[in-house]
């Protein structure tokens, strides 16, 4: 994998991690309620859950490449279209964070377990990885090194972004809970998803 392709993936992974989703909501709500120190356990849990998805996606894509180059190319086109669709959905979302019925006495271990389940039970994570990974994999080169690079990069970036959200939430609770702020974030990252999907599709046209 060339440095240029890796840097392009880094940008895409940053957009993926920053975009509001279940992991983001988990990190922000934990930061607002428990503070950043206690919330570190939840960040580790999120990455463990995502790591499981990455392994599953990697195994599946590796098998697909070995069986059919045409099918792999088709997955790439579907993935680019999915990114555009996801961007449109994000643009239309209007939501705010709620802290109702939150138990402030939970342990760091409980936060870790909850975070693992958040990512493990979120089908959007694995669907997104299936859409994104093939865009940066060269089917003519060994798959394992490429998947390792993409997987480790994803985990490092996502952990960093979740830490940023936790720290931000612990300081600026009022603003992050605002429906207006969350709507603006959805529109910003929705536009980025649309742009990424369109650029990837045009690059293959």
UniProtKB/TrEMBL annotation:
One of its GO terms (molecular function) is homoserine transmembrane transporter activity. The chain crosses the membrane at residues 6-28, 40-63, 69-88, 116-137, 149-173, 185-203. It holds the Pfam family LysE. GO terms for cellular component: plasma membrane. It is found in: Cell membrane. InterPro entries: LeuE-type. Keywords: Cell membrane, Membrane, Transmembrane, Transmembrane helix. It is a multi-pass membrane protein. Belongs to the Rht family. This is Homoserine/homoserine lactone efflux protein.
């Amino acid at each position: 994998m060339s440095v240029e392709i890796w840097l392009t993936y880094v940008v895409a992974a940053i957009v993926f991690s920053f975009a509001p989703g279940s992991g983001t909501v988990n990190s922000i709500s934990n930061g607002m309620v428990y503070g950043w120190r206690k919330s570190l356990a939840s960040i580790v849990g999120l990455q463990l859950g995502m790591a499981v998805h990455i392994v599953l996606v990697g195994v599946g894509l590796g098998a697909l490449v070995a069986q059919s180059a045409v099918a792999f190319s088709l997955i790439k086109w579907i993935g680019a279209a999915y990114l555009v669709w996801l961007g449109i959905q994000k643009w239309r979302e209007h939501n705010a964070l709620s802290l109702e019925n939150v138990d402030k006495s939970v342990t760091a271990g409980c936060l870790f377990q909850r975070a693992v389940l958040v990512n493990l039970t979120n089908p959007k994570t694995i669907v997104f990885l299936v859409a994104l990974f093939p865009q940066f994999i060269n089917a003519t080169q060994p798959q394992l090194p490429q998947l390792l690079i993409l997987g480790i990069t994803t985990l490092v970036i996502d952990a960093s972004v979740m830490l940023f959200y936790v720290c931000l939430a612990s300081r600026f609770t009022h603003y992050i809970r605002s429906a207006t702020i969350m709507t603006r974030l959805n529109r910003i990252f929705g536009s980025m998803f649309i742009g990424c999907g369109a650029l990837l599709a045009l690059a293959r046209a």
